[in-house]
Amino acid sequence: MEFDAKEEIKNKLDVVDVVSSYIQLQKAGTNYRACCPFHNEKTPSFYVSPQRQIWKCFGCNRSGDIFTFVMNIENVDFITALKILADKAGVKLPQFDHKLESQNKIIYNIFSDIIQLYQNNLNQDIKDYLIKRGLTEEIIKEFRLGFSNDEWNQGLNYLINKGYVIKDLIETGLFIKKNETNNTSVSNNYYDRFRSRIMFPIYNTSNEPIAFTGRIFEGKNKLQTIKNIDESGKYVNS
Ligand code: ZN
Questions:
Q1: How many angstroms is it from 36 CA to the middle of ligand 1?
Q2: Alpha-carbon distance 59 to 103, whole Å?
Q3: What is the CA(57)–ligand 1 centre distance, in A?
Q4: What is the pLDDT of residues 7-46, one digit of tens each?
Q5: Can you tell me the distance from the alpha carbon of 127 to that of 168, in angstroms, rounded to the nearest whole number?
Q6: What is this structure's pTM?
């Protein structure tokens, strides 16, 4: 439903009007340009295309539509940008499903927290390996790459200690239910899907982490929780 509202707002607002309510635009052929509001520059490399209803900066490479522009310039999340632009467009937003919204928020928080754990797990061996494959320290940091240890329950225990409940944790797809379960402790019935893997977070368009791709990393020691790499897959997605 939020997407219908998004389309309606997009139809009613012109990217040129939205952007020029924040910064001064100059006409440049069929486009408009300005000094980029998102990085420091003296010659304009920020362009707005009325035809495509997008903006792009060739200096810092940021780009997007009216929603990402407002998110960036107001420094707000997507929902807030949606509200700001709905106001401008005179579009009445449907009542948000707060339950769904807060459930999603929990999932994002879980991903953010476990990304931090994975980042802390990243040791020099793995960094060297990534750098050898063409990545840089900067990219590793910016995309928040990490490592899931060769352990059955590190991620699960870490998140349970942070106070998350198992019902929310299993919704992330990060944990697998054991075939044989016991009822003494719910957390004993699950184990980490990602073990001994380099973790690449996947983000949605609002830059919230929603999944992982995990690539197996063997290192020097024999793997403890993975018997057969071919069976468990070189790459795993959540
Ligand atoms: Zn820029």
A1: 4
A2: 37
A3: 5
A4: 899 999 999 999 999 999 999 999 999 999 999 999 999 9
A5: 31
A6: 0.58
